[in-house]
Task: inverse folding
């Protein structure tokens, strides 16, 4: 199945909204099951979350956009910008 990067940049001064919405976001991420390959916050200079990097498997770009749009962060209008790019894993070096 094709892979996509969801590169989501938070609106300025939105850390309180991110933290308030985080539990719903994590539940949503869990609901994606094996289609969620990697996810985590991008950090600003102070080490605080300022966006999200998510890699998913999706049927096509339209489906990847649906995944992004249904994220509680997106529904709460946390993001200033969301980029969706096709991606292909070539090297995987995760260790448990």
Result:
């Amino acid at each position: 199945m094709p892979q996509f990067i969801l590169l989501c940049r938070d609106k300025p001064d939105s850390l309180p909204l991110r933290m308030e919405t985080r539990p719903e976001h994590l539940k949503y991420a869990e609901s994606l099951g094996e289609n969620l390959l990697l996810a985590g916050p991008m950090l600003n200079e102070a080490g605080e979350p300022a966006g999200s990097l998510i890699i998913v498997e999706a049927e096509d770009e339209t489906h990847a956009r649906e995944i992004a749009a249904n994220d509680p962060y997106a529904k709460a209008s946390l993001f200033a910008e969301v980029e969706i790019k096709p991606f292909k894993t070539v090297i995987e070096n995760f260790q448990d």
